[in-house]
Amino acid sequence: MKLEFDIASGDFSKAGRASSRIKKMLKQLQVDPKVIKRIVVAIYEAEVNVVAHSVGGKMLAEIDGTGITVIVQDNGPGIEDIEKAMQEGYSTASKAVRNMGFGAGMGLPNINRNTDEFTIESELGVGTVLTFRNNF
């Protein structure tokens, strides 16, 4: 099963739609609730990162008999220092984003912590691609 979601820049009211829809599907497939929680955390963090840091992007999710693979691709400034961005608390979020309660610098670390496989590729001025997988 393949799903695709558009993620709009700056629209925090819509962040979480993909994770909510995928959560419902995984419940219907009777996936272990602990696994669902990990998946939903990773997907939500990825959605918020696209909303906060890019000019929009897409999320593709593929559910097969053994797990879920998610690819999140954004159009944005790219990540200058991936190693730094992976550190808890490091954030490049704007003051406006922080004032809304986002941008604490936990997004990428939380994605990494809640997935079985995680890769990140980024090119300055082009954007970022996250690929992660959780096994059932």
Automatic annotation (TrEMBL):
Residues 17-133 form the Histidine kinase/HSP90-like ATPase domain. Signal peptide: none annotated. InterPro entries: HATPase_C_sf (IPR036890), HATPase_dom (IPR003594). Pfam families: HATPase_c_2 (PF13581). This is Anti-sigma regulatory factor. It comes from Draconibacterium sediminis. The lineage of its organism: Bacteria, Pseudomonadati, Bacteroidota, Bacteroidia, Marinilabiliales.
